[in-house]
Design goal:
Length: 218
C-alpha cells in the first residue's frame, strides 16, 4: 500500500512497483486513510510519505507507529525529502525489523526503490546512505566513533544502511567470521548490553540506534 499526497508521485510509484511484479492493494493521501486501509487488509509493505495532510508535518511517522503497534508483521518504508536523522531514529524506535527510511530523490532510481522495498519486505532494516554519511561526518564533542578502528567504522556504516553480515563481507572483502568479530567489538565499544541481557533484541538494531542517538547530540 502507498500513502502519498502527491498524486503524480503516487502514480509513478504504483506504475514502477506494478511493472516489477508487486501488487499495490491500496492508495491513500492522508494518515487516516492509510491506517484505515491497513487495518482492513494488512499488506506486506506500506510506503509512507513522511508529511501527509492535514498537518504536513510528521503524519507519516505517526501512521507508521500506529501500523507497527497493530500490525507488527507489516513492513514500513518511509519516504522523505530530507535526510533527517531524528526522523530515522523515531522510525527505528517503532521497531527496526522490516523498517526503512529513504530520501525521495533515491526513488527516482528504480533499482534503489525496488531494493529497499524487497529488503523491508524480507524483514531487513534500510537507512538511506545520506543519513549515514551525515552522521559519520558530523562533528561531536564526545564522539562514540573515537573508540572504533577504521575497519570497525566501515562495518558500522554498512550496518546502518541495513546491509546483512554476508553483504558487508562481500562489500569489504572480509570473511563472514571477520564481520561477526567486528560487530561484536563495535557492540562492546559502544557499551551495549551483553548478549545474555539483550533478550531477543537484535544486536545490529542496538548498534545502529545507539550510534544514531549519540551522533544526533550536539
Amino acid at each position: 500500500m502507498i500513502a502519498e499526497d502527491s498524486g503524480l508521485l503516487r502514480q509513478m510509484l504504483v506504475e514502477v512497483l506494478t511493472r516489477h511484479g508487486y501488487r499495490v492493494t491500496g492508495q491513500a493521501g492522508t494518515r487516516e486513510e492509510i491506517v484505515r486501509l491497513v487495518d482492513a487488509a494488512p499488506p506486506d509493505v506500506v510506503l509512507l510519505d513522511i508529511r501527509l495532510p492535514p498537518g504536513q508535518r510528521d503524519e507519516g511517522l505517526v501512521a507508521a507507529g500506529e501500523i507497527r503497534s497493530r500490525h507488527p508483521g507489516t513492513g514500513l518504508l518511509v519516504l522523505s525529502h530530507y535526510a533527517e536523522t531524528s526522523y530515522a531514529i523515531r522510525l527505528l524506535e517503532c521497531g527496526a525489523r522490516g523498517t526503512g527510511y529513504l530520501v525521495k530523490d533515491r526513488v527516482q532510481n528504480t533499482g534503489h526503490l525496488l531494493d529497499a522495498v524487497a529488503r523491508v519486505a524480507a524483514g531487513e532494516t534500510v537507512v538511506d546512505p545520506e543519513v549515514v554519511t551525515r552522521m559519520m561526518s558530523r562533528r561531536r564533542v564526545v564522539d562514540p566513533l573515537d573508540r572504533l578502528t577504521p575497519a570497525e567504522r566501515d562495518v558500522l556504516g554498512l550496518m546502518a544502511e541495513g546491509l546483512s553480515n554476508a553483504a558487508i563481507a562481500g562489500r569489504l572483502r572480509y570473511s563472514l567470521k571477520t564481520v561477526e568479530k567486528r560487530i561484536t567489538a563495535i557492540a562492546q565499544k559502544l557499551d551495549l548490553p551483553a548478549a545474555a541481557d539483550r533478550g531477543d533484541i537484535n544486536v545490529r538494531v542496538l548498534v545502529v540506534l545507539t550510534y544514531l542517538r549519540r551522533a544526533g547530540r550536539p
